[in-house]
Amino acid sequence: MAARKGGVSLPERPYSGGRSDGILSRVSTTISQSPIVFQGKRAACNTAFVAKKLLRSTGKAAWIAGTTFLILAVPLIIEMDREQQLNELELQQASLLGTPQK
Q1: What are the DSSP calls for the chain, one per residue?
Q2: How confident is the model at residue 24 (pLDDT cuts 50, 70, 90)?
Q3: Among 79, 6, 86, which Cα is nearest to 46's?
Q4: What is the pLDDT of residue 94?
Q5: 3-state SS of the chain: helix, strand, coil percent to 5?
Q6: Cα separations (Å) of 31 from 2, 10, 35, 37?
Q7: Measuring CA to CA, which residue among 6, 8, 73 is closest to residue 41?
Q8: Where is this region: Disordered (predicted)?
Q9: What is the dihedral of CA 21, 27, 28, 31, to 10 degrees?
Q10: pLDDT value at position 22?
């Protein structure tokens, strides 16, 4: 098997010396070994590497933001809700008992 970096390789066939490879095989080999294809593969690998790093750092940032929200914002929301309920209870009691007139 031929070892190539960054892709799947097929087992090499021994050269028979004749024209048994065919023109399609020769053209395919020529195209796959061209510098343009090499640069395209390199660009695709670099893009995948950057995307993987970006996704990983985005995941870390989301984790940090989520845990910070749970630690800081959720208790504040709960306390504000309690305060609102207490205010409503005081208003209800004042309406039942009647407000003192001045």
Answers
A1: ----TTS--PPPPPP-SSS-S-HHHHHHHHHHTSHHHHHHHHHHHHHHHHHHHHHHHHHHHHHHHHHHIIIIIHHHHHHHHHHHHHHHHHHHHHHHH-PPP-
A2: confident
A3: 6
A4: 87
A5: 70, 0, 30
A6: 17, 16, 9, 7
A7: 6
A8: 1-21
A9: 150
A10: 82
Average pLDDT, rounded, for the chain: 82
Query: Residue 1: what pLDDT?
Result: 47
2: closest CA among 34, 32, 46, 35?
A: 32
What pLDDT score was predicted for residue 27? Answer: 79
- The amino acid at residue 90 is E
Encode 18-33: b = buried (16+ Cβ within 10 Å), e = exposed.
eeeeeeeeeeeeeeee
- pLDDT band for 72, please (50, 70, 90 cuts): very high
Residues 34, 41: contact at Cβ < 8 Å? no
